[in-house]
Amino acid sequence: MIKLIKNGEIYAPEFLGEKDILVVDGRIGAISDNISMDEIEDYVEVFDATGLTIVPGLIDGHVHITGGGGEGSFKTRTPELLLSDCLIGGITTVVGVIGTDGTTRTMTNLLAKAKALTEEGITCYCKSGNYHVPVKTLTGSVESDILLINEIIGAGEIAIADHRSSQPTKEEIARIASEARIGGILSGKGGVVTIHVGNGRSKLSLLEDVIDTTDLPIKQFLPTHINRNHELLKAGINYAKRGGLVDLTTSSVAGEENELSSSKCLSTMLKEGVPIEQIMFTSDGQGSLPRFDERGELVGLEVGKVVSLFHEIRLAYKREGISLEEVLKVATSNPADILKLPQKGRVSVEKDADLLFLNKKKFEIEGVMAKGKWMIKNKEILKRGTFE
Length: 388
Ligand code: ZN
Known about the structure:
Layout: E1 2-11, E2 15-24, E3 27-32, H1 40-43, E4 52-56, E5 58-63, H2 83-88, E6 91-96, H3 107-120, E7 123-128, H4 142-148, E8 152-160, H5 170-187, E9 192-197, H6 205-213, E10 221-224, H7 230-241, E11 246-249, H8 262-271, E12 279-282, E13 288-292, E14 298-303, H9 308-318, H10 324-329, H11 333-338, E15 355-359, E16 365-370, E17 373-377, E18 380-381
Parallel strand pairs: 5-6, 6-7, 7-8, 8-9, 9-10, 11-12
Antiparallel strand pairs: 1-2, 2-3, 4-15, 13-14, 15-16, 16-17, 17-18
């Protein structure tokens, strides 16, 4: 939105005299003696996007922004996310989570890192808690975390069906979700609880039990890593057919041989009749991708990459033949709706100018704009993190 205010007498507070003010997207873009309509072009940077496809900047709803892991002792703690990791992956909005280690990875650190990424130019939110219950929060409860802290939009990731979980009960999961729900309702946020679903035999049964026996709506939960194996995918499809949300992890393929790519799983789910609006892709970036043998011993470890989000979207479009309109939803409008980020996820008037510019032919990232600022232009990274 560009507005031109003519002929006002300005005290800035220093006296500037009679000037014109150009207001661009809620900010003062220029102050000058006479800004005529013809002259506005002096203040406008024109970019020719011929040959480019413009889509919403991607939302990555599950990233270990402070690093995660540590399942192979301290030296296997994964590093923090860098701004350029996001930019190279076309990501302009990130949701940070903690993960397995809720002792050396803290909520204060998570919040500080989220603020840092936002200062560096993208938009970063986070979730309250880690794998374990009782949940370690910032303010004393999940409800007040969501209600009082701008950046905190939900809870999680709480682990179930995993040897690394705290083996939560149905009641504990229900209590966390009710707090997240109330916090969300009172603050106008999503309050969605991300549920990490591990390799365990129980799969989604604990979650289904909570939904069957409480008044909590199924969409209060976002179970993630549903593409971990065939059995969990099957359970996830049944869960989605009940109306549940499901999240596919794009970086997971590197972690375990029997994991399934998000692009393939998306195709399977759509063929099974799951509405695309219930499906999200997230990267699980900077998380550890540990491999355990059947006795639970660690046999390998890698770090998830946020760029996998774009790669899987590209594969879903190019290889699985899903229309671009549809496939984009899983990391743009769907997370914006599910997590309640009204400024994000759509190229639309009044939304944040978070834009991704793609080469039409090759479907490669040519440019990234975050909140109206060029971050990557003509494939050149213009903005890096403070210490990059
Ligand atoms: Zn997880």
